[in-house]
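Okay, any thoughts on this one?
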Amino acid sequence: MRDTQPILVLDAARPADIPGAPREPALTLTVAPGDLLLIEARNNRRAALFADLCSGLVPLGSGNARFLGQDWAKLPAEMAAALRGRMGRVFADDGWIGFLDMETNILLAPLHHTRRSLDALRTDAAAMAHRFGLPGLPLGRPVDLPSTDLRRAACVRAFFTNPMLLLENPLLDQDAELLGPLLAAIEHARGRGAATIWLTRSDVVWRDSSLPVTARLRLLDRGLVGERAAA
C-alpha cells in the first residue's frame, strides 16, 4: 500500500517581508505521494520564491512549511541541507555552476547525499541522459552547450533524486520533443510514490488537457487558486 503521509505541506506559509518588495500572500497546499500539480505562475519572481519556499530556503513571516513531516524552520542547517537532497529541481535559470563541467554539475548532489560509487552514479546518469534524448552525460561546461541540451541535462539532474520534484518551466518553446521523455519520467517517478510540482508560464502547457495532472492551480497575488482533479 502506498504511503499516504503528505510529502509537502504549506500551512498558511507566507514569506517574510522584504523591504521594497511586494507583500507575498499566505500559501496553503498539501502534496501527497503520486501527485502531479500543474501550477500556472506568470510572475517569474513569485514562481522562484514559491519554489524556494517549498525547498526551505525562504524565511517565513507566518505559517509553516513541512517536507516529509519536518518543519523547515526548526531544522538545523545541516539537517535541512540533507533533507533538501531528497528534492529534485529544474531551475528556471538552469542553476548551473559555471566553472564546473557538466558531469560534476549533474552528479554533485547525489555524490554528496549518497554513498554510491562515482562509477555507479555515472552509469545511471548516462542511462537517464539517453532517456531525455542526450547521447550520454554532456561534456564541457554549461557555457559550451545549447539551451535545449542544458534543459535536458537539468531534467537528468532533477530526476536523479526523490521523492519530490520541483519543475520550473522545464519545457522550452524550441524543444517540444522533450515533452514525451519528461512525461515518461514523471509517470515513472509517480509510480514509486514521488510527487511533482510543475510550474509553468506556457499557455500551451497550461491548456494541454492530456497532461495527467491531479490538480491545476494558479499562483496569483492572492495566493494559490484552483481545484484538485477528481480521483
